[in-house]
Design goal:
alpha/beta; Aminopeptidase; Muramoyl-pentapeptide Carboxypeptidase, domain 1; 3 domains; six-stranded mixed beta sheet; 12% strand; binds zinc ion
Length: 389
């Protein structure tokens, strides 16, 4: 009887001490995450000067949970294509050590293996960061910022993948994690298009990777704003939205790297519906990164994602999703004709649709070039553009 009590006492003591030891351990392990922001924009810029910045590209969602969709197009595929293009730009650059988590065929072998084999470690990681984070908030060492935008709750599998990516990034000393998404709003009816424009999500200010993420986001916003309209969804009106609970950008201090989530625009915007235009999204992201590294001059031509271009066909008014028109819009943009003077960039995106914006811009171009016409896209206009681009 006595020894039973003895064992019970031992078990109780063990049960009491282990979490204490464990918590203490975690505190040491995670302390740097909270009390010293150990990855700053200055550090990341220094890595660039040294010739190696590690970037992880994460096209949003996966084949099981494909995000939003529009007319048969799925977010999962469109953002994978942006990711593949961005990978190309960065890999070609030479200063970036770049990893793509997923392409159009799904997760790379490395990541699908990682999620399966490391599942328990990732689950432990999730518990650890949250235990510590809750402790910090309970003792009022940090205060959680209010959440302005509601994020969909994710299932366990997605949780493992998203926190797993953060853990992987921490373990591999990644400088920047870029999540790529297309936006939507809840309750949208199929014909509706209430909102458009890009927005950028970053960790809120109490999180350890806030500063570097915010700095990067500001440069991305600056570049995108030169060409694209920012979101007109009221809560996204500053284009950069700080979020305390988005796993992708490091909820609960789970990410050491800069964490930025791009919502390039709304899924129904035509600019995401051709291969060529998806390339622009990747190119602007690359430009934003170079701007962050104060190397924006490196890209002399803002439209090298499309030029040189050869226009071979006439296009009739009201045609939609024509790469020839997107390229013509880009050309007219560069020449200062697009959008036409009385119209805005929001009304006139580079989207491949031949409507009033393009017609007016073409008419002004034709006037300047001495071409007879009223905004048609015919042989003389094509010849003039082919000569210039
Ligand atoms: Zn998404």
């Amino acid at each position: 009887m006595k020894y039973k009590i003895f064992i019970i006492i031992i078990v109780l003591l063990f049960g009491l001490i282990t979490p204490l030891l464990w918590l203490n351990d975690m505190r040491n392990y995670l302390a740097s995450l909270f009390f010293v922001n150990d990855l700053t924009s200055a550090d990341v810029r220094a890595h660039y000067q040294q010739g190696s910045v590690s970037i992880l590209i994460v096209p949003g969602h996966d084949n099981k949970n494909y995000g939003t969709w529009y007319k048969g197009m799925k977010e999962v595929d469109l953002v994978a294509e942006i990711g593949e293009n961005l990978y190309e730009y960065l890999a070609r650059d030479g200063r970036f050590n770049v990893t793509l988590v997923r392409n159009r065929n799904g997760y790379t072998q490395e990541f699908s293996d990682y999620f399966t084999k490391q599942k328990n470690n990732i689950a432990f990681f999730i518990r650890s960061v949250w235990t510590y984070f809750n402790e910090l908030t309970r003792t009022q060492q940090i205060a959680i910022s209010p959440q302005k935008v509601h994020h969909n709750r994710v299932n366990r599998k997605t949780q493992i993948a998203l926190y797993g990516i953060n853990k992987w990034a921490n373990d591999h000393n990644i400088d920047i994690v870029l999540h790529l998404h297309l936006n939507d709003y809840s309750g949208r009816r199929s014909w509706e298009r209430k909102y458009d424009g890009f927005s950028i999500y970053i960790p809120s200010k109490e999180l350890p990777n806030h500063e570097v993420s915010q700095e990067l986001a500001r440069h991305l916003r600056k570049v995108f704003s030169r060409y694209w309209a920012a979101s007109n969804l009221p809560v996204e009106k500053s284009a950069i939205i700080e979020s305390p609970l988005l796993i992708a950008t490091g909820a609960a201090g789970s990410l050491r790297s800069a964490g930025v989530l791009m919502e390039y625009g709304y899924i129904y915007e035509s600019r995401f519906h051709t291969d060529l235009m998806l390339k622009e999204a990747a190119f602007r992201t690359y430009q934003g990164l170079l701007a962050f590294f104060m190397d924006g001059e490196k890209i002399a031509d803002d439209f090298s994602w499309v030029f040189p271009y050869e226009w071979e066909r006439n296009i009739s008014f009201e045609s939609r999703l024509k790469e020839d028109i997107a390229a013509a819009q880009a050309a007219l943009f560069e020449l200062g004709f697009y959008p036409p003077p009385d119209m805005t960039r929001r009304q006139c995106p580079i989207n491949g649709n031949f409507r009033t914006c393009t017609k007016k811009a073409l008419a002004n171009f034709q006037k300047q070039m001495g071409i007879a016409g009223n905004g048609e896209f015919g042989p003389k206009t094509r010849a003039a553009l082919n000569k210039l681009f």
